[in-house]
Amino acid sequence: MELKSLRIKNYKALQDIVLTKIPKFLVVVGANGTGKSTLFDVFGFLRDALSGNVRQALDARGRFPEVVTRGHERESILVELQVRLPIAGTPRLVTYGLEIGQQLGRPIVIHEYLRYKRGRYGAPYYFLDFKKGKGYAITNEEDFRKKDEDLDREEQQLESPDILAIKGLGQFQRFKAANALRQMLENWHVSDFHISAARGRKDAAGPAEHLSPTGDNLPRVAQYFYENHRSTFDSILKRMQERVPGIDGVEPELTQDGFLTLRFRDGTFKTPFLDRYVSDGTIKMFAYLVLLHDPRPHPLLCIEEPENQLYPTLMAELAEEFRGYAIRGGQVMVSTHSPDLLNAIQLEEAYWLVKENGVSRVVAAKDDEQIRKYMESGDKMGYLWKQGFFRGANPL
Ligand SMILES: Nc1ncnc2c1ncn2[C@@H]1O[C@H](COP(=O)(O)OP(=O)(O)OP(=O)(O)O)[C@@H](O)[C@H]1O
Ligand SMILES: [Mg+2]
Questions:
Q1: 2-21+33-189 and 190-386: same fold?
Q2: How far away, in angstroms, is 353 Cα from ligand 1 center?
Q3: What is the Å distance from ligand 1's center to 360 Cα?
Q4: Cβ(244)–Cβ(288) below 8 Å
Q5: CB 247 within 8 A of CB 266
Q6: What is the DSSP letter of 392?
Q7: Which of 16, 171, 270, 342 has the fewest beta carbons under 10 Å from its own?
Q8: Model confidence at 171, in pLDDT bands (50, 70, 90)?
Q9: Percent of the chain with pLDDT over 70
Q10: pLDDT-derived band of residue 297, with 50, 70 and 90 as boundaries?
Q11: Ligand 1 centre from 196 Cα, in Å?
Q12: Is pTM beyond 0.90 here?
């Protein structure tokens, strides 16, 4: 799966933004309050709306009046994604749209749709189209040669108008597009990593194949890698040894009462340190390596300010790891305030946000002629940013 473009309307400070030709690795900068976290939260919002419903996703964010852009309360919130997605074995460029409004004080899905072209020259066709809980989906979409009128439409009424059709129908194999999109959204990872959540002993039972958004299953994932993906675990260790002085080894340890802890070995001392007592940056670096070396990468990974707690010269390697993750099948979006991280990225990967009159706009560095020229002559993104070439990005 690959996110190709994104349109957001009336979602907090993102009143109307469009991102096109999204690279596999995207880094966004911007002054405080310009909407970086909000941008990532849109992905979290979609995932929450899918796992529960739209009302729950809005409630978690202060309800509809708090989420819709100030001054646009009478309008609807729109998220439209264009993704490359395999449907019934064929990769297709699919557009998924979700428009949310309020009716009698309750949030409802005004319009939800999924469309893509039938064949290279065909007009876009709606394979799923729902308004206020009622609509249809196509079940024989792989029969592309059929005429439109021969496609099987199945009319459906959803349980309630705040449920996503891709949730209701996506569980059924016969709705292939809804199914594919649902699976993709379910696997998005919007990191909300907290060092304190990652530390300490954890119950040995529980999800262990992927690091959780907060990182609170770190010892379990480490143990899972240790037992099932030893070469991955070993390359994580090697990188830890290179980056954190004094770290010679990390071992998951199962206690007799069914808890797991991590032990960090320092060659100088005989007794290893429990994860509770090693430094913040040590835990964070280990967690990032576990996240980024996941043998089954998430289709989309969003990480905020990865530079916090880490030594600046490590940023270039971290950028390389993000890029590697994206190439292995996922897509990575990162927000940052770090010139060192920015120095390690390419022209096409850099974006910035500018806030004017309370709403934000997004700028791609590649669209700025001056920045393009400097980069062609060997300059670096972070230096250009610090020198003020990201027009409108600096608050002063
Ligand atoms: N409903 C809304 N309408 C308009 N603006 C809003 C709405 N809700 C929140 N905002 C504004 O959106 C801003 C964007 O915040 P966000 O947390 O995304 O910024 P950020 O770029 O992540 O900043 P930082 O670098 O400080 O983390 C908030 O400061 C707030 O003023
Ligand atoms: Mg933020």
A1: yes
A2: 11
A3: 9
A4: no
A5: yes
A6: T
A7: 270
A8: confident
A9: 97
A10: very high
A11: 25
A12: yes
Which pLDDT value is given to residue 294?
95
Structural tokens at position 167:
């949730």
Ligand 1 binding pocket (C-beta < 6 A) is 12-13, 30, 32-38, 66-70, 358
The full 3-state SS of 46-87, as one line of letters, equals: HHHHHHCCHHHHHHCCCCHHHHECCCCCCCCEEEEEEEEEEE
Query: Above 90 in pLDDT, residue 175?
Result: no
Residue 300's nearest CA partner among 39, 113, 97, 60 is 39
Residue with CA closest to ligand 1 atom 5: 13
Class of domain 2-21+33-189 (CATH, top level): alpha beta
Q: Which CATH architecture has domain 190-386?
A: 3-Layer(aba) Sandwich (3.40)
Under DSSP, the state recorded for 33 is T
**353 CA: nearest ligand 1 atom:** 21
Q: How far is the CA of 172 from the centre of ligand 2 (A)?
A: 37
Q: Could you identify the atom of ligand 1 that is nearest to the CA of residue 67?
A: 1
In this prediction, residue 276 has a pLDDT band, given cuts at 50, 70 and 90, of confident
- The domain locations on the chain are 2-21+33-189, 190-386
Nearest atom in ligand 1 to 30's CA:
21
